[in-house]
Amino acid sequence: MSAAMEPRIQYAKTSDGVNIAYCVAGEGRNLLWVWPPPFSHVQLDWETVSSHIFQPLAKNQRLVWFDWPGTGLSDRDSIDFSMEAMTRAIETVVARTSLEKFSICATLSAVPIALTYAAEWPERISHLIFVDGWTQFSEVEQSAARQAEKALRGKDWVIYSETFARVLMGYEDQEYEHQLAKFLRACVEPDAHRAAIDASEHYDVSALLPGVTAPTLVVHNQNSPWIGVQAGRRLAAGIPDSRFVVVDDLTYAQLPSLIYEFLREGEASSPAAAALPSGMTAILFADIADSTALTERLGDTAFRAKARDLDGTLRGVIREHAGTAIEGKLLGDGVLAVFTSAREAIEAALACGRAGDDVGLPLHLGLHAGDVIREEDNVYGGAVNIASRISGLSAPGEVLVSETVRSLARTSAGVRFEDRGQQALKGVGEAVRVWAVREGD
């Protein structure tokens, strides 16, 4: 899903008359995303600072997100950030979007709000994902970043937001820091911001932890300047049977794949998701088409920048489809990945093709399945060579698969296959029958 297909901004009214802006994107399991008040802006979240989270999530879930009262595109004249007002906002969005059973992902000071809501409506919650969370303000108030933020809180709003984004958040990407500072100013006015921070200092939900019954994933950034990892450990330890994962990515780029894997666990297996026969691996090659001509047209620096961005996108797509990108394979302008499901490999290949087309770097894409030799961060073997050769046969943006992959996935992939006949592949003794993948029945 691209920014050009951005979701429609809609409104729901709370019982006390506040208009709440919300968006819905994607299909599948219901996932409600909850940012910490007052930092939310439904349009900019999708288009800019959170696009690397929301757009991948919407490919696999029905994603719902919203702006708190007093923030973003919701009514700005309401600056009540009490726990009662916050849970009322959630309940309003839940009712308006018909969320009967759903997961919640909450970050930072939204975690105690989500815990309070889940305690009130446990029958509605299928899973909980808490990121950099805490249960009482005393766990965060002594951090150096918090103390510095408190000293700046009443100062010039532009200086505050720029310092917050560029110094206090700990990011190393200057472009992202600047983008975040503008985002903060778009989210909230200074009075509402101070009201939200003041209200959060009274949140304390530590007594609710033992009563959590939904499967819970607790994720914590070990480099967070705001909340020490011990707060995440205490949160996980207090919730029965929760899982604790430590990451070091302050932009949360890993979250879509972590969430996808967590929500998939425990699902009943079906023919559509059946694994490959024992010992077999599906291999995907994705390589930028005509990279030499693109380099000449764009210039080496511009091409390399676009290629690096695309590489990150492709690896995200591969993770979302339960694949593993092979880090040790040096492919120049390409990515090699392995899968345990032929269907998921095909879906990943199609998604990679769309990603390449979206940024003007079309890909050659090829799939084969067979035995591979795994050694540290590499894979070897005849099956890998065949996948590479099939990729080289494909037209830019086209996915070609071997007969082996087609036969494994034809009853479950939701695609059709066009026969391209027997193909002689360099370095392969026998010709291989190849099929082009077409989306739709």
What does the model show?
The chain is α/β, with parallel strands linked by helices and 441 residues long. It folds into two domains: 3-264, 3-Layer(aba) Sandwich (Rossmann fold), CATH 3.40.50; 273-439, Nucleotide cyclase, GGDEF domain (Alpha-Beta Plaits). Helices cover 38% and strands 22% of the residues. It contains 15 helices and 17 strands. The protein has helices at 42-47, 51-57, 83-96, 110-120, 144-152, 157-168, 174-187, 190-200, 229-238, 255-264, 291-298, 300-320, 342-358, 382-393, 403-409, and strands spanning 10-13, 19-25, 29-34, 61-66, 102-107, 125-131, 216-221, 243-247, 281-288, 324-325, 334-339, 363-370, 373-375, 378-380, 399-402, 415-423, 432-439. The strands form three sheets. It has an eight-stranded mixed beta sheet with strand order 1-2-4-3-5-6-7-8, sandwiched between helices. It has a seven-stranded mixed beta sheet with strand order 10-11-9-12-15-17-16, sandwiched between helices. The chain has a two-stranded antiparallel sheet with strand order 13-14. α3 packs across α4, α5 (144-152) packs antiparallel against α6 (157-168) and α12 (300-320) runs antiparallel to α13. The chain is elongated and about 70 Å long. The two termini are 21 Å apart.
Topology:
Layout: E1 10-13, E2 19-25, E3 29-34, H1 42-47, H2 51-57, E4 61-66, H3 83-96, E5 102-107, H4 110-120, E6 125-131, H5 144-152, H6 157-168, H7 174-187, H8 190-200, E7 216-221, H9 229-238, E8 243-247, H10 255-264, E9 281-288, H11 291-298, H12 300-320, E10 324-325, E11 334-339, H13 342-358, E12 363-370, E13 373-375, E14 378-380, H14 382-393, E15 399-402, H15 403-409, E16 415-423, E17 432-439
Parallel strand pairs: 3-4, 3-5, 5-6, 6-7, 7-8, 12-15
Antiparallel strand pairs: 1-2, 2-4, 9-11, 9-12, 10-11, 13-14, 15-17, 16-17
